[in-house]
Write a structure and sequence with these properties.
With 650 residues, the protein is mainly β. The protein is built from seven helices and 38 strands. Strands 9, 11, 12, 14, 19, 20, 21 and 23 form an eight-stranded antiparallel sheet that branches. Strands 24, 26, 27, 29, 34, 35, 36 and 38 form an eight-stranded antiparallel sheet that branches. It is globular, with a radius of gyration of 28 Å.
């Protein structure tokens, strides 16, 4: 359509066009994003997947599909070709256009693309997915010295060791199938394809940008959990053979093995996942939960039992769960004691603490004949070369939960598979994981802490999509971080940051009563800074200042805190600075200060006092882009961070 015309007829107009290109070159480059262009003809035959094409015209595009619904443009009927364009150097001309309400993006002549895929969701509608590439040679000379037609962070990639794009890892798959997503998300994909026909917004995949802030390659110190740092994630804990959220009921999520309370009454309080509840067993009368039918276990059966428990009494003797006769997880004087037969047991070494949520798991792997118990994702004890001691017929037995237990139970999951230790650690210590692509409000971690957003845009990110913050009130907010409200609980946050047009605060952790952490970029020098209010023994705030952040380049930033190593600030998985004075956290005061925390990206408008960050006002909103946000309920290790920045998309 654009590459097969006689351009020699334009020669008399070259000087005029140069003036036009000069003006456009002086406009700031729009963020990397998906834009749309529609034509009332079928051009699909001219764009076979895999071909490389060049558009030589000034191409007007829009960031909103709803604009194309107008009969002035593409409309909703007739033969149409819709181009979904991943662009890296478009120019935003809204401020200079007659159409002041439209986010119009103009592509320059000589824009070079690769055709990624085609779909035809209706007989008269053809959708072509184009991804802009750096051309093999200069197609459009800069109109003046210093003109930046392609952002430096993009063109600079040509001089660096080549990193495969995610789509190159498997060219046999179309662009819309390359994300590893759960089956429930696949249904959403089908809805989105249908929505194209209705003119709704279609989510698109984005390409990986080479990280540019470090010239060294750190040596890996651990690979634990690294398989889940590549954009994939384990199934949520609710994907199980039986799952008990205890949200005011003892029923199984799947209604196959509902529980019945035996003994005294039970009550419910706010749970570890605070949008739901947890069951309270106080043993004023002997109380337990009985479940039938039991599972038909054999000597070859695998299983994983995991959940969150809070003890209200020390040195407790209780049955946390009995899966079958002689197959149970107990507490003996407050220590975990697992039985997998009449004469086979696994005994822990730690007396469980009270008043804190603990993730407890019990895994049996029949193939390896190994049984393991863990606390907060850390192996407490393991036993090898053991077989399940199973009676011939155990389906008539009763699953028992909480006999003699005094405390709270939440998110109890029973799976007839043997989860690996990295999955157990993920379930125990990943408070949330936001991919920020596709359905960007979804939490891909184990707890389902979905977010909300205001005035944010999706653009090409470090891995597929990212969120762009270019308005003063732009924000992304997720509630319910119980672990971060727990006094002196180790925690970490890690994310990709792309500084663009303005420094400012890009992450805040707070509840309505107290502020825990602020991350931002200083006005002077664009240095990364982390601020912890009331973090010393005397109640002073602590600022940890890191290096200067590059403009328009993705850099990985992480902050960790623990009571043993205190505050650490990392960039590109390298330790940038340590806050040795940050010996405490603002949540240590208890009460409302220990309420579940909210993580805010962008503009913070909460009621807590977060003032004190050095070199920038807490109300000054960062304008740039963020991607791949991890929130850990533990101190992330340097090896975790190294895996995050070195693992490419799959």
């Amino acid at each position: 359509m654009y590459s097969k015309v006689d351009r020699t007829k334009l020669r008399p107009w070259f000087r005029y066009l140069k003036l036009f290109v000069t003006a456009l070159a002086k406009l700031p480059v729009a963020p990397r994003q998906t834009v749309w262009r529609g034509v009332r003809k079928d051009h699909s035959a001219e764009y076979p997947p895999g071909d490389e094409v060049t558009w030589w015209a000034f191409s007007s595009c829009t960031t909103s599909l709803s604009v194309l619904e107008s009969d002035l443009y593409l409309g909703n009927t007739g033969t149409r070709t819709l181009f979904s364009v991943e662009t890296i150097n478009g120019r935003t001309i809204r401020a200079h256009s007659h159409f002041v309400t439209e986010d119009e993006i103009l592509l320059l002549p000589g824009t070079y693309f690769q055709v990624k895929s085609q779909i035809s969701p209706a007989p008269d509608l053809h959708i072509v997915h184009l991804q802009q590439k750096i051309p093999p040679h200069v197609l459009l000379e800069p109109p003046f010295e210093g003109a930046e037609l392609i952002p430096f962070s993009e063109s600079d990639r040509l001089s660096r060791p080549r990193i495969k794009e995610p789509e190159e890892l498997d060219d046999s798959r179309p662009w819309y199938t390359k994300k590893r997503i759960l089956s429930v998300i696949a249904a959403v994909v089908a809805l989105i394809i249908l929505a194209i026909i209705l003119g709704s917004v279609l989510g698109t995949q984005k390409k990986h940008t080479a990280q540019t802030t470090s010239t060294s390659t750190p040596t890996l110190t651990t690979t634990f959990s690294s398989i889940y740092y590549n954009g994939s994630a384990p199934d949520p804990v609710s994907v199980a053979d039986a799952f008990y959220a205890f949200d005011g009921t003892t029923n199984d999520l799947y209604s196959l093995r509902n529980g019945a309370v035996a003994g005294g009454p039970v009550s419910y309080i706010q749970g570890y996942v605070p949008y739901g509840q947890a069951i309270v067993l106080n043993q004023s009368n002997t109380t337990q939960i009985n479940i039938q039918p039991a599972f038909n276990l054999t000597t070859n059966s695998n299983f994983t039992i995991e959940g969150f428990f809070m003890l209200q009494k020390t040195q407790l003797n209780a049955t946390l769960i009995q899966l079958a006769p002689n197959i149970m997880l107990n507490l003996v004087n407050g220590v975990l004691f697992a039985s997998i037969g009449l004469n086979t047991s696994i005994v822990g070494t730690s007396v469980l603490s009270t008043q804190n949520w603990l993730h407890i798991s019990f895994v049996y792997y029949a193939t390896k004949q190994t049984a393991t118990i863990s606390i907060d994702g850390i192996v407490e004890a393991t036993n090898s070369s053991v077989k399940l001691g199973i009676s011939a017929n155990n389906t008539n037995s009763v699953i028992i939960i909480g006999a003699g237990f005094q405390g709270y139970i939440d998110q109890l999951s029973i799976s007839l598979i043997a989860k690996t230790q990295d999955v157990i650690q993920w379930d125990a210590t990943i408070a949330a994981y936001y991919r920020l692509d596709f359905q960007w409000t979804l939490d891909s971690g184990p707890n389902g802490l979905n977010a909300s957003g205001v005035d944010v845009n999706t653009i090409f990110g470090w891995r597929y999509d990212a969120l762009n913050f270019n308005a003063s009130d732009a924000s992304f907010q997720a509630n319910g971080f119980t672990a971060l409200g727990t006094p002196q609980q180790a925690f970490s946050v890690a994310l990709w940051v792309r500084a663009e047009t303005r420094s400012g605060v890009f992450l805040t952790v707070a509840n309505p009563y107290t502020c825990l952490l602020v991350l931002g970029l200083q006005n002077d020098g664009n240095k990364i800074v982390a601020y912890l209010p009331n973090a010393t023994a005397t109640g002073a705030g602590v600022n940890i200042v890191g290096p200067q952040m590059p403009i328009n380049a993705w850099t990985h930033v992480a902050f960790t805190w623990s009571s043993t190593n205190f505050a650490k600030l990392y960039t590109s998985a390298l330790l940038a600075n340590v806050g040795v004075d940050a010996t405490t956290l603002n949540n240590v005061r208890g009460g409302n200060n220990s309420a579940p925390m909210t993580v805010t990206l962008g503009n913070y408008s909460g009621s807590a006092n977060c003032q004190g960050i050095q070199g920038v006002n807490v109300s000054q909103t960062f304008m740039g882009s963020l991607d791949e946000v991890f929130v850990f309920a533990r101190e992330a290790q340097q090896g975790d961070l190294q895996q995050i920045i070195q693992t490419l998309p799959s």
